[in-house]
Every structure is written in structure tokens, then in C-alpha cells.
Design a protein that fits this description.
Elements (H helix, E strand, L loop, with lengths): L8 H6 L20 E4 L7 E4 L7 E4 L23 E7 H17 L3 E7 L8 H14 L8 E5 L1 H13 L6 E5 L2 H7 L7 E3 L2 E5 L7 E4 L9 H18 L1 H17 L6 H22 L19 H8 L5 H18 L5 H13 L12 H14 L6 E4 L5 E4 L4 H13 L10
Parallel strand pairs: 3-10, 4-5, 4-6, 6-7, 7-10
Antiparallel strand pairs: 1-2, 8-9, 11-12
The protein binds nicotinamide-adenine-dinucleotide, D-altro-hept-2-ulose 7-phosphate and cobalt (II) ion.
The site of nicotinamide-adenine-dinucleotide has 29 residues, from helix 2, helix 4, helix 5 and helix 6.
Protein name: 2-epi-5-epi-valiolone synthase
Cofactor: NAD(+)
Organism: Streptomyces crystallinus
């Protein structure tokens, strides 16, 4: 830490130095270096600049709860070999996998408390977070050596991530994603959050888990609709940056749905492996250089311009990935109208959505005021500009800031005329 020198004030009092001027010129290291800076003789202003190194690991580990595995305890110090953990588990996951998880913890001699939490989008709120905090308080944890463990989908991981970022101003946590969205998106980024006041993820922090352990075996019990829900976020990455990933979804999407990434067939296993790795790698390539979102042109925002408002308005009828897919369908057609992709590619995209059994239409698109309000809210979220990612062919993206209400209305009409797949009806 460097401190800039404050000149000897005695020189200033006598007025002997003609070079005197109000306010010391900034001295010390370069402009954006870490350090403590002062700006004036009276030292009435300090600027503290520092940086905090952040690194976190995402590890693929099949059969994570096999008794011989020890990855779960790799984060957190185990003083004298003692393992003590607070484990938050999604209620559905507990019903399906809880016995095996408890047997694993017992086998490793862990002292633990399991907090079972029903989790879905309608429960992604501060009250659920507060309940978890109360139970952590009752159990008592060492905030440096006993990371909280969360086992569940994106909803529970977002909630527990928020709790981790707030509890004692930062308590490390370990993520075990159990849904496809969790494996490729919610479990690999730094975002945490809850819905608030009817708005999607309105309260949240940037707080990555120290360690995320990916075991696709959990997908065996995930229902088909939620496999498709996760495939929507994989399609997002494919459309903005990975044409091969798109081709894999186009050719093998139905196999992935049928086999739930469990590699039932040899071909299905090879595709599941490559699709997961490509999706995760692609997401991380986009996230790492801009993890704290200093720059708001973010390709991974694709499909997330209108969908936050549409998803919350449709709740609980439209899952997150489904709302993202409807948004991507609308913006694919909008991009086609702007000449950013051909009619053939437009039709390929819509066909892949159908192949993944995802909606590319929702009755809410019929409400132009909703779409206008959605875009206005996103403009606020993106510091006053649309910064709207549009597909530039398949596997590329450009950002636009000038989409008009007429364009949106036309894209809705185009999408309707293209006979898009409707989501389930909702009131
Ligand atoms: N933080 C991020 O960067 C990020 C990224 C993408 C999405 N998200 C968030 O993720 C959420 C969506 O996540 P999701 O799709 O995982 O939803 P979810 O967490 O609601 O899980 C979906 C459903 O599946 C059940 N479930 C979970 N694992 C299961 C399993 N292995 N077998 C059977 N059932 C299982 C859950 O109980 C739930 O009912 C949204 O709130 C979205 O905002 C966050
Ligand atoms: O849904 C999420 C994050 O919540 C991701 O799939 C998505 O790609 C991005 O992170 C987007 O930036 C949307 O994030 P946000 O609206 O939650 O800030
Ligand atoms: Co998303």
C-alpha cells in the first residue's frame, strides 16, 4: 500500500515557496494503482484504491457422492481432520437423493445439519433467504473454515449464494448443481439473488462459490421439461458464439432430451459430454473478463432483454429457460428483419427450439405495452442503453441500441405468422 507524501506544512505557512498552489498534485503510483491517495494540504480527501483477487473452481466430478469421493470437503479447512458443514438441499432433491447424501456425510464422519428447502421460482425470495440465515445462526459456523454447501437447482443456488454473500459479510459456499441450468449456467457464474417486488433477481450480489461440483448424474431424475429448460440456456451460448454447439443441438437435441445427458447410448454420451463442456466453457469465456459487469454489453444477456418481465408476469407458468427461449425467438426474427441472419438460419433456429420442445411464443407477446415496459426496465438495468444482443448469423452476436416499438410489434407479427410453438397457456 503506498501513501503519497504530505509535504511539510511548515513550508506552506511562511509563504516562502512561490510554487505553492491549492491542492497537492496527485502523487504516488499511477492513476489506477492500488494505494492510499490524498489530494490536498488539509488532507480533506482520501481515495482508497485496492483490488481483491478472486478465483473459484468449477469441477466436473461424476458420482460425486460415491463414498470414495472427497471433493465436497475440498473447500474449507478441516482443522484436526474435523469436518463440520451446514448443508442446504432442495426439497425435491432431498426426496430423491437425500438418503445417499446423508450416507456419504456419515461415512466421512462429518458433523452436519441439513436444511431442506422447497425451491422454485415462486419461492425465490428474501423470506426463504432469511429462513436459511436463521438456521445457519442456530447451527453456528466458522465463516472461514466451514463453507455452506448448497445442493439444488438455480433457484436454491441463487438464494444460498445471496445468503453466503451477506452472512457475516461473506461466508464461503460450495455449490452442487442438480439441474441442467445449474450445471451450465447458474452454477458457473458469480451472480446470486432473489426476486423482489415482482421483479426478477432485483436483489442480488456478485459472489461466486469457492467450489462448484458438477455431477450430471443428478439429471437422471430431472423431468423432461426441466432438461429442455436448461437446453434453452445452452442454445443461448450456441447462438451467440458457438456454431458447432448449435449443430449438436440441431442434430442431437431430442437424444439429449430422451437420455437426460445420462449417456444411455454411446453416441448420446459423447454428445452429452461435448455439449456440457462447450456450454460451460463458452459461458466462462464470456463471464471471466467481465465478471463484475463493468461493461454492460454482455453477449450472455442474449434472451434476457424481455424475458425477465415476461417470466415474472407469467409466473409460474413459464420456466426461466422457456422465457429466455421466447425472447430469443423474438430477437432472432428481429435480427432477420435487420438482415443479420438469413431466412434459412432463422428457420433453423426456430426448428431447433421446437426440437428441444421449447416455446418460441407466449400469449404475453400480444401485449405491446408489456414488451415496451420490459425493454424500458432492461434499459435501466443496462445503464440507460438497450445494449441488446442480436444474433449475427448463427454463432455470432452484435449489440444494438435502437430497436423501436414498431420493430418489436412487427417481430411479434412475424413470429406469430411463422407458426411458433406456443408455451402452455396461463392466465
Ligand atoms: N446465477 C446465475 O448466473 C443464474 C444463471 C441462470 C439461471 N439462474 C436462475 O436459475 C433459476 C432457474 O434454475 P432451475 O431451472 O435449476 O430451477 P429450480 O432451481 O427451480 O429447479 C427446477 C425444479 O427441479 C427440481 N429439481 C432440482 N434438481 C432436481 C433433480 N436432480 N431431480 C429432480 N428434480 C430436481 C427443483 O425442486 C425445482 O422444482 C432462475 O431463477 C434463474 O434466474 C441464475
Ligand atoms: O439468467 C442468468 C443470470 O441470472 C444468465 O442465464 C444470463 O446469461 C445472464 O447472466 C444475464 O446477464 C441475465 O442476468 P441478470 O438479468 O440476472 O442480471
Ligand atoms: Co438465464
Amino acid at each position: 500500500m503506498s501513501v503519497s507524501p504530505i509535504e511539510d506544512s511548515s513550508q506552506l505557512v511562511t509563504g516562502t515557496d512561490p510554487g505553492l498552489s491549492r491542492g497537492l498534485p496527485l502523487t504516488g503510483p499511477g492513476d489506477d494503482d492500488a494505494g492510499l491517495y490524498t489530494f490536498s494540504q488539509q488532507v480533506d480527501s482520501w481515495v482508497v484504491r485496492t483490488s481483491k483477487p478472486v478465483s473459484y473452481e468449477i469441477r466436473i466430478r461424476d458420482d460425486l457422492f460415491g463414498l470414495s469421493r472427497t471433493d465436497l470437503f475440498d473447500a474449507g479447512a478441516a482443522p484436526e481432520g474435523r469436518i463440520r458443514r451446514f448443508v442446504v438441499i432442495d426439497a425435491d432433491v432431498d426426496l430423491l437423493h437425500g438418503d445417499r447424501i446423508r450416507a456419504y456425510l456419515d461415512h466421512h464422519g462429518a458433523e452436519y445439519e441439513i436444511c431442506v428447502v422447497p425451491a422454485n421460482e415462486t419461492l425465490k425470495d428474501f423470506d426463504t433467504a432469511a429462513r436459511i440465515v436463521r438456521e445457519i445462526d442456530a447451527f453456528g459456523i466458522d465463516r472461514r473454515r466451514e463453507p455452506v454447501i448448497v445442493i439444488g437447482g438455480g433457484v436454491l443456488m441463487d438464494i444460498v449464494g445471496l445468503v453466503g454473500s451477506l452472512y457475516r459479510r461473506g461466508t464461503p459456499f460450495v455449490r452442487v448443481p442438480t439441474t441442467l441450468i445449474g450445471l451450465v449456467d447458474a452454477g458457473v457464474g458469480a451472480k446470486t439473488g432473489v426476486n423482489f417486488n415482482g421483479h426478477k433477481n432485483r436483489l442480488g450480489t456478485y459472489f461466486p462459490a469457492d467450489l462448484t461440483l458438477l455431477d450430471r448424474g443428478f439429471l437422471a431424475t430431472l423431468d423432461r421439461r426441466h432438461i429442455g429448460n436448461g437446453l434453452a440456456e445452452i442454445l443461448k451460448i450456441a447462438l451467440i458464439k458457438d456454431a458447432r454447439l448449435f449443430n449438436l443441438l440441431e442434430q442431437y437435441g431430442p437424444v439429449l432430451l430422451d437420455e437426460k445427458f445420462q449417456g444411455v447410448s454411446e453416441r448420446g454420451d459423447l454428445v452429452a459430454e461435448e455439449v456440457l463442456r462447450r456450454a460451460i466453457h463458452g459461458m466462462l469465456e464470456e463471464l471471466q473478463p467481465n465478471l463484475w459487469e463493468a461493461k454492460l454489453e454482455r453477449t450472455v444477456d442474449y434472451g434476457h432483454t424481455f424475458s425477465p418481465t415476461v417470466e415474472m408476469r407469467a409466473l409460474p407458468e413459464l420456466l426461466h429457460g422457456e422465457a429466455v427461449c421466447v425472447d430469443m425467438a423474438l430477437t432472432t426474427v428481429l435480427g432477420w428483419r435487420r438482415g443479420l441472419l438469413s431466412a434459412d438460419d432463422r428457420d433453423r433456429v426456430l426448428a431447433v427450439m421446437r426440437g428441444l420442445e421449447l416455446p418460441s411464443w407466449d400469449p404475453l407477446l400480444e401485449d405491446p405495452s408489456l414488451l415496451t415496459a420490459a425493454l424500458q426496465d432492461t434499459v435501466r438495468h443496462r445503464n440507460g442503453k438497450q445494449r441488446l444482443p442480436l444474433p449475427d448469423g448463427i454463432g455470432g452476436a452484435v449489440f444494438v441500441n435502437d430497436v423501436t416499438e414498431d420493430e418489436i410489434t412487427r417481430a411479434v407479427r412475424d413470429l406469430r405468422e411463422l407458426g411458433s410453438t406456443r408455451s402452455g397457456t396461463h392466465v
